[in-house]
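Q: Give me a backbone?
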Amino acid sequence: MFDNLKALSQLGPMMAKAREMQEKMKEVQARLPSIKATGTAGGGLVTVTANGVLEIESIVYATSAPLTDTELLSDLTRAAVNQAIKNAQALVQKEMEQVTGGLDMGALRGLMGQ
């Protein structure tokens, strides 16, 4: 019985900490559009920039890019876009892990009834 009471006494501070983490998560989410990641392909022939909400912000072709070879250019563009998105996801994950310490916020939201 006393173990249950002790565990219950820990619930308040845990919930406060969870709310604090949730606020920090909101701050990170607000910064996501300003997080930038790039991806390149073809030795720098194509460079793509994506943001933290996984939107493509720019695609730049080097002056030496084979603009007439549309199939190759398409492949290089796709590869650079995929790399930029993967890099953006990694940056976002790193930001989130710094806030949560690797804790699963989805589980916490469920506990908090959200």
User: Anything to note?
Assistant: The longest strand covers residues 36-41. Residues 70-100 form the longest helix (31 residues). The CA atoms of residues 40 and 77 lie 8 Å apart.
